[in-house]
Specification:
Helix content is about 75%, strand content about 5%. The protein is mainly alpha-helical. It is a multi-pass membrane protein.
Length: about 140
């Protein structure tokens, strides 16, 4: 069982997946920073200068706090600002991945076209094949 696991881990697909997950996690932090530090402050300024992630609706009359963290401590809240922040984060990440896949596909298409263009023309048949073809054609006419 241990040997099977070692074989499974050593296969290229699993290693590629592991590298992809690690890079994806690091890339996610970059996207989080872009959303939280660059985009959301602009969106917050448009919506009155507040931190957009702190927008919430109290679901209990006992919630009187003005910040999301304090409101969560007091009771149930509908934290739509946090959800919108995560949603925008996802959309930006999905858009960037779409652009990357589109670029890779375009690169693959250009490489495939070059391979088709560089395909060598068929070499002319050797003399003995030409002679045998002529003999065959003559025998067919008889």
């Amino acid at each position: 069982m241990l040997n099977e696991f070692k074989t499974f881990i050593a296969r290229g697909n699993v290693m590629d997946l592991a590298v992809g997950v690690i890079i994806g996690a690091a890339f996610s932090k970059i996207v989080d920073s872009v959303v939280n530090d660059l985009i959301m402050p602009i969106v917050g300024a448009i919506f009155g200068g507040f931190d957009f992630s702190n927008y919430f609706l109290p679901l209990s009359s006992s919630v009187t706090a003005t910040s999301l963290a304090a409101a969560r401590d007091q009771g149930a809240v509908f934290a739509y600002g946090s959800f919108l922040t995560v949603l925008i984060n996802f959309l930006i990440l999905a858009w960037i991945i779409f652009l990357m896949v589109k670029g890779v596909n375009k690169l693959r298409d250009s490489v495939d076209r070059k391979k088709v263009e560089e395909k060598p023309e068929a070499a002319p048949p050797p003399e003995d094949v030409k002679l045998l073809t002529e003999i065959r054609d003559l025998l067919k006419t008889r």
